[in-house]
């Protein structure tokens, strides 16, 4: 197949191109739909990429990807599998799409939430809701002797 192209986005502003020679594909029998053909065709695809040796990533990107994908890695090798379809070709495309999505997500910079104060309106709404709830509960009480 061709090189794996990843569209530009956060963390990779120029996009990425992973050479086809660095991708390792393995095929095996897939479980699931396919009837008798599932026993004879190798439609399941495992696509692997060694993040430590790939030329597609810069050192900074490599470090970020290795840290963020640590639980998915076997050593430094990222592997995705696709067996959704009867067709090996469609499974190959699905595996490439999954690998690309994982790489893109791992390279995106972390979003840090800035702490803000509640607005005046949100405080007013919160207090009004508490007041309504309090009045509702007060109506449930047993009437006094007064």
UniProtKB/TrEMBL annotation:
<dbReference type="GO" id="GO:0003747">
    <property type="term" value="F:translation release factor activity"/>
</dbReference>
<feature type="domain" description="Prokaryotic-type class I peptide chain release factors">
    <location>
        <begin position="17"/>
        <end position="140"/>
    </location>
</feature>
<protein>
    <submittedName>
        <fullName>Peptide chain release factor 1</fullName>
    </submittedName>
</protein>
<feature type="compositionally biased region" description="Basic residues">
    <location>
        <begin position="114"/>
        <end position="134"/>
    </location>
</feature>
<dbReference type="InterPro" id="IPR045853">
    <property type="entry name" value="Pep_chain_release_fac_I_sf"/>
</dbReference>
<feature type="region of interest" description="Disordered">
    <location>
        <begin position="110"/>
        <end position="146"/>
    </location>
</feature>
<dbReference type="GO" id="GO:0072344">
    <property type="term" value="P:rescue of stalled ribosome"/>
</dbReference>
<dbReference type="GO" id="GO:0004045">
    <property type="term" value="F:peptidyl-tRNA hydrolase activity"/>
</dbReference>
<comment type="similarity">
    <text>Belongs to the prokaryotic/mitochondrial release factor family.</text>
</comment>
<dbReference type="InterPro" id="IPR000352">
    <property type="entry name" value="Pep_chain_release_fac_I"/>
</dbReference>
<dbReference type="GO" id="GO:0043022">
    <property type="term" value="F:ribosome binding"/>
</dbReference>
<feature type="region of interest" description="Disordered">
    <location>
        <begin position="1"/>
        <end position="42"/>
    </location>
</feature>
<dbReference type="Pfam" id="PF00472">
    <property type="entry name" value="RF-1"/>
</dbReference>
<feature type="compositionally biased region" description="Basic and acidic residues">
    <location>
        <begin position="135"/>
        <end position="146"/>
    </location>
</feature>
């Amino acid at each position: 197949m061709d090189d794996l192209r990843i569209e530009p986005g956060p963390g990779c502003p120029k996009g990425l191109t992973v050479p086809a020679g660095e991708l390792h594909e393995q095929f095996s029998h897939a479980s699931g739909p396919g009837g008798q053909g599932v026993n004879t065709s190798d439609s399941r695809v495992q696509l692997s990429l060694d993040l430590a040796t790939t030329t597609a990533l810069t050192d900074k990107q490599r470090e970020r990807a290795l840290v963020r994908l640590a639980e998915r890695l076997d050593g430094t090798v990222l592997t995705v599998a696709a067996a959704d379809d009867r067709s090996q070709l469609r499974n190959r495309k699905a595996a490439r799409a999954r690998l690309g999505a994982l790489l893109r997500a791992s390279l995106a910079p972390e979003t840090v939430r800035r702490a803000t104060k509640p607005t005046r309106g949100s405080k007013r709404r919160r207090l009004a809701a508490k007041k309504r709830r309090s009045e509702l509960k007060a109506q449930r009480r047993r009437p006094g002797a007064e």
